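Sample entry (61 residues):
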Amino acid sequence: MFNFIKVTTEHIDTIIQLRLTLLKELDELSSPQEEQLMETATRKYLQNALSRNEFIPIWQK
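Predicted structure, serialized as tokens:
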């Protein structure tokens, strides 16, 4: 059985880490500066989109 929860702003750090890990594995980030830019942009996007219900991911718990 699966237990799903709606992602909220509480989960932003986890989502960012998962995204950065994926991008690193795909060799999409070529420098620490690029990683920092991606983290900042993703955080800003998620904070705005989640607060306006424009991005509604579901997390398996």
